Amino acid sequence: MYDIREWRHAFKLDPDKEISDEALEEICESGTDAIIVGGTDGVTLEKVLDLMARVRRYTVPCALEVSNMEAITPGFDFYFIPTVLNSRDPKWITGLHHEAVKEFGEIMNWEEILVEGYCILNEDCKAATLTDANTKLAKDDIVGYAMMAEKMFNLPIFYLEYSGKYGDKDIVKSVKQTLESTTLFYGGGIRSAEQAEEMAFLADVIVVGNVIYEDLKTALKTVTAVKKINRK
Ligand SMILES: CC(C)=CCC/C(C)=C/CC/C(C)=C/CC/C(C)=C/CC/C(C)=C/CC/C(C)=C/CC/C(C)=C/COP(=O)(O)OP(=O)(O)O
Ligand SMILES: O=P(O)(O)OC[C@@H](O)CO
Ligand SMILES: [Mg+2]
């Protein structure tokens, strides 16, 4: 499925973490809508190339979520570019992006590039520390970022990122109610089929990451849990 507006579930694989061929096969053949390759640190070109080649044995769509310029390579179906809307440092909002587009803009295939408006809400996660994200936000602050993502910047994706921590359902619900055309990704702390199902009622796309490496069987169960619920 190459239209993110039809996705319900994605697995996020971290190039900096090891995964066996058997586990990778189960993940890629699970029925998930996509594999997102991304992580905050330790993402090198070598590790990205290795993981991409292994995922490419399967037909599942595969996106590279760019976290640094050095690890970008051709061969993915999509390139997801995060912009951290609640960062206190402009480098993570438009700074690195400006440098990249100045240098490579003429040769970039914009058809395969999707910008993700991130709002990072777990103050203890690596991405929050790296980007100096202001995580002390009230619901209306977060809803404001969602509205900016859609109405001001026309972004295809708004990503509520709780990486490592299960999020606040009330916030996810309010953000979903605010968005009309932008796709809402929810990611963070999903460690059971029940949690996946709960968030699938609220968000468009549920992203499952760390549990892949901690409890593969449970990770696989999140796919069926999410797929049985229609997107609103
Ligand atoms: C050759 C070719 C095909 C070219 C393609 C052209 C192309 C795509 C060019 C890129 C253009 C561009 C605009 C690039 C932007 C450059 C850039 C570096 C932007 C900054 C991105 C950013 C804000 C990164 C910050 C960190 C972040 C939000 C990462 C996202 C992933 C994430 C949150 C992972 C979760 O954390 P994790 O590491 O899993 O944590 P744990 O290990 O604790 O679980
Ligand atoms: O690793 P977890 O906590 O599942 O989060 C998934 C994803 O949102 C991380 O970027
Ligand atoms: Mg992770």
Catalogue the ligands. the ligand CC(C)=CCC/C(C)=C/CC/C(C)=C/CC/C(C)=C/CC/C(C)=C/CC/C(C)=C/CC/C(C)=C/COP(=O)(O)OP(=O)(O)O, SN-glycerol-1-phosphate, magnesium ion
What coarse outline follows from CA principal-axis ratios?
globular
Q: Count of DSSP E strands?
A: 8
Number of H/I helices:
9
What amount of the residues lies in strands?
A: 15-25%
The parts where pLDDT drops under 50 for at least 5 residues are: none
> Which percent range fits the helix content?
25-40%
Specify Rg, calculated over alpha carbons.
16 Å
Descriptive key words:
alpha/beta, 9 helices, 232 residues, lipid biosynthesis, 8 strands, 18% strand, binds magnesium ion
Summarize it:
By secondary structure, the chain is α/β, with parallel strands linked by helices. Helix content is about 35%, strand content about 20%. The structure holds the ligand CC(C)=CCC/C(C)=C/CC/C(C)=C/CC/C(C)=C/CC/C(C)=C/CC/C(C)=C/CC/C(C)=C/COP(=O)(O)OP(=O)(O)O, SN-glycerol-1-phosphate and magnesium ion.
What is the topological layout?
Layout lengths: L8 E5 L7 H8 L5 E4 L7 H11 L6 E4 L12 E7 L10 H10 L8 E8 L5 H6 L7 H14 L4 E5 L7 H10 L4 E5 L5 H8 L4 E4 L2 H4 L1 H12 L5
Parallel strand pairs: 1-2, 1-8, 2-3, 3-4, 4-5, 5-6, 6-7, 7-8
What does the model show?
This protein has about 230 residues and is α/β, with parallel strands linked by helices. The protein has helices at about 20-30, 45-55, 95-105, 125-130, 140-150, 170-180, 195-200, 210-215, 215-225, and strands at about 10-15, 35, 60-65, 80-85, 115-120, 155-160, 185, 205-210. An 8-stranded parallel barrel has the order 1-2-3-4-5-6-7-8, surrounded by 5 helices. Helix 2 (about 45-55) links the parallel strand 2 (about 35) and strand 3 (about 60-65). The mean pLDDT is about 95. It binds the ligand CC(C)=CCC/C(C)=C/CC/C(C)=C/CC/C(C)=C/CC/C(C)=C/CC/C(C)=C/CC/C(C)=C/COP(=O)(O)OP(=O)(O)O, SN-glycerol-1-phosphate (1GP) and magnesium ion. Magnesium ion binds next to loops.
